Every structure is written in C-alpha cells, then in structure tokens.
Amino acid sequence: MVPAMTRSAPPAATTVGELRATGWESIPVAAELRRNAVARIRAGEPLFAEVLGYEDTVLPQLENALLAGHDVIFLGERGQAKTRLIRGLTELLDEWMPIVAGSEINDDPYAPVSRHGRELVAEKGDDTPLDWVHRSDRYGEKLATPDTSIADLIGEVDPIKVAEGRYLSDELTIHYGLVPRTNRGLFAMNELPDLAERIQVGLLNVLEERDVQIRGHRVRLPLDVVLFASANPEDYTNRGRIITPLKDRFGSQIRTHYPLDAEIEMDIVVQEATIPTVEGVEVVIPDFMTRVVATIAQEARRSPHLNQRSGVSVRMSVACQEALAANALRRAVRAGESVAVPRVSDLDALPAAMAGKVEVDSLDEDRDGEILGRIVQAAVLSVFRDLVPGSLHRGVVEAFDTHDGVSTGDDLGASAYAEVATEIPALSTAAAAVMGDEPVPDTGSGTALLASAVELVLEGLHLSRRLNKQVSGPRSRYSSRGSESPSAGSGD
User: Fold this and answer.
1) % of the chain at pLDDT higher than 70
2) Closest by Cα among 247, 242, 239, 297 to 268
3) What is the pLDDT of residue 224?
C-alpha cells in the first residue's frame, strides 16, 4: 500500500461522451510520469520531500530514468529507502484517471483491452459508463517469495467461473493477476532475486512487448504499466539472482546508498523516529544525543567486525533513537521527574536495538555485545571531540586533580549534575560547548539538558584516557587518573 493521500472529489464526467467533451486525452503512464516530473523540476519542487540524502546522487539518476520512460531497478542494501522511492512515484501520477466502469484491469475508455471493456464500449459507445480511479489505487506491489506463481503475477483460469458454465476458451474465465490489475499504473516487485527464475521469465514480455499471455488462451493484453523493482546486491543475496534477460529489459539500474554523513543521518532519524510519550513527562532529545545515535551508524558501517555486505540499515539508527528516548522516559517516570532527556548512561539500552539489525563477523558469539559496545563508545568519543574544543579538556582534567570525583547513574536526578557543574566551572564551560545553541524550553528542561551534556563530557574525557571511570551497579564514578592506577577504570 502507498501512503495515505488527501483526495479531492473526482471529475464530474460519468460517460465516455461527457469525458470526450471535457477534452481529456489518454496518454501512456510513462508519458504521464514524465509530464508531471518535468512540471515539478521546472517549479523547483523536490520529487520526494521525505527522502533525504539522495539529492545529488540517486535522484538525478531517477529523474533521468523518468524522463527517458524507463523501467527501473533499485539496487542496494537493506534500509536504503528503495521501496519508499517507488511508492512515492505515485505522487507523479494524475490524481484521477477514468476507466470503463466495472473493468478489472483499468480499461482506457478510448482504447479498452479486456473483452469486458471492448464489448461494453462497442455496445454503448459514448454512453459507456465510467469509474474514476485515484492515483493511490494505481499502484501494485508484490514481495518476491519462492512460492510466488505466474498466476499471482499474470493470471490463471478461474475454476469457479468455469463451474458456472463458461467454456475454458472464454476469455471471461480468466482471473487476472497483479500485473494486469495494475494496468495504466505502476507495479513494483520487491526483492526481485528471491523470485524463482522460471517466474522471472514471465515478466519478460511485460517489460519488452508490454503484454501478458494467459495459459490456455489465445489472448494478448497490451498493457500500459511501468515496472520498478528492488534488490540487494547479488554478491550478498545468495538466495537467488536476477536472470540476465530480465535485467537487460530494465531501462535503468540505480544504486542506492546509506547517508554519506552524520548530518543527513540525524535529519532522517529526527524525521522517522517515533518518540514515546507518557502523560506528565516531556521527552526532549538534544541534538548532541541524536548526533551520537547517527554517529553510531556511521561507525558501524566502517567497522571491520560487522558484515558490510549485509549493510547497516538506517532502521537501526531510528530504532536506537527510540530506545534511547524510551530508556530516558523510564528513568524519568521512576524518579518522578517531569522532563526526560537522554544521557550517555542511557546508551546501555542500545545494543538490544542494534543486535537484530547488524551481522557480527565473529567466531565467538559471546563477543557480539562487546563489539557493539565498542562501536557505541567510538561514537561517543567522536561526538565529544567534535563538540568540545581541546582547549577545554585541560581545565576539566586539572579540576579533577583536586576533586573527589563525580558520580553518574540512573538513580541520580538532573539537579545533582547541576550542582557538580556549579562546583567545577570548567566542567560547566565544557558542557555549554556540548549544548551549543540547543533550545531550552524551560528551567526543568535546561537542568536535564545540562545533566546530559555533563555526562557526555565526562564519558568523552574517560574515553580519551584523561579520566578514570569505575562502574558499580547503576552508578559510574569519574575521577582523576592521578588518584588511582590507570587499570582501575573500566575500559582503560
């Protein structure tokens, strides 16, 4: 299904004669896509408002394919918005399309192809009744599975219609498959390599000759349909392959990719994540924690310990953002606080959201948690170095030389961090650098944001080997490296 769309009322014409009087003209679907795509390009409007990061890479290729009238196959790892791109193309169709009333395959009133449509137009002429189809109903989609059959895609004789008394030679005994039912529309085949090779052969005529042939019938249906497909790279998908003649019939093959930098990933996470809510608790996720989540994905895509052929889906980033917010919310509910702001200590909840979305290349299964934990630490360190200038590190470290240490943990309220920031001005300055221009809705949120920034600074200095860290239950304690042996801190 395509996303829900707002609909205007369909046109008033109810017969072919009334339609002809309006001046409506029938054009192929590819030409319709081209016309509407050109209108958007000319107006400077994006083809896809909700697909981010493809503006200079994928979308120019897709625009070329649409202008050329090509069928398209999107090739890329999981979680790269391939299906979203295809579904979004329905917005480039005219809002309403007239069909011969009662047609199962969206017969063009001016040139019907089914027996039902031809006979009705021949009998009634300009009085032929019309139905109007919204563009959201002109999209068909099938997930390729090994049990998908030709009958599913193209059609088959309907035994019930035969039992009703029709002859097998009667075209009206045919039950049309998904492709004919998407006539004058867009059809998408997801995970195309998973489709059995003998079934892929059934799509050859659709892509080249633009027709389908139903078994046992001398019937040819010249279809008007634009086909799209998605597939993982063949070097990873060992379950099947796209047969060469079928791949040859797609006009364009477009390679998708993951977000090229953390900024784009952050925008996608903010757009896609569903933040949990509880009455009486406001969840505020600061930009610097979203940056940590986005950087985790970027680090994962560079990790030699993860299977990069499988890919690290953007869905992992979205799931991590939601898990991070949920853990902060749970902490706030337990503490009776009205504001929940994620902290570094909440990152312990992320491996559960990451585990099912990456494939760890390790002979020892017990190392999965360790590998994911190190990726999270690398992301925290990277964000800390980006946000806190090196000139501010020394002041905090020197302050800890004369300080007993700072404790953090789920059981500490935001006010405890504010007190520490007041005691150590250098820490407050570094935390302010982390927050930057972060909007502070009110005093409560400001205190909670400060607590989150303080934790990031402390953990960043620990990962930089400037502070010791000792973990005891839900609490972590940061202290001067001169006060204990370097081996005393966990992770040193």
Assistant:
1) 89
2) 297
3) 94
CB atoms within 10 A of CB 386: 14
- Digit-coded pLDDT (tens) for 39-88: 999 999 999 988 999 999 999 999 999 999 999 999 999 899 999 999 99
Query: What are the tokens at 177?
Result: 């498959």
CATH number of the domain located at residue range(s) 16-255 in this protein = 3.40.50.300
Do residues 384 and 344 touch, judged by C-beta distance below 8 A?
no
Short-list 454, 451, 459, 461, CA closest to 394: 461
Q: Compute the distance between CA of residue 312 and CA of residue 153 in angstroms, rounded to an integer.
A: 32
Strands 185-190, 225-231: parallel, antiparallel or unpaired by DSSP?
Answer: parallel
Name the CA dihedral angle for 271, 272, 278, 282, rounded to a multiple of 10 degrees: -30
Residue 489 has pLDDT above 60, yes or no: no
Domain chopping of the chain, boundaries: 16-255, 262-488
Note the pLDDT tens digit of each residue in 207-244. Answer: 888 777 766 555 677 899 999 999 987 544 456 788 99
Q: What is the pLDDT of residues 244-292, one digit of tens each?
A: 999 999 999 999 999 999 999 999 999 999 999 899 999 999 999 999 9
For residue 173, what pLDDT band results from cuts at 50, 70 and 90? confident
221-251 burial, b if ≥16 CB within 10 A, otherwise e? bebbbbbbbbbbeeeebeebbbbeebbebbb
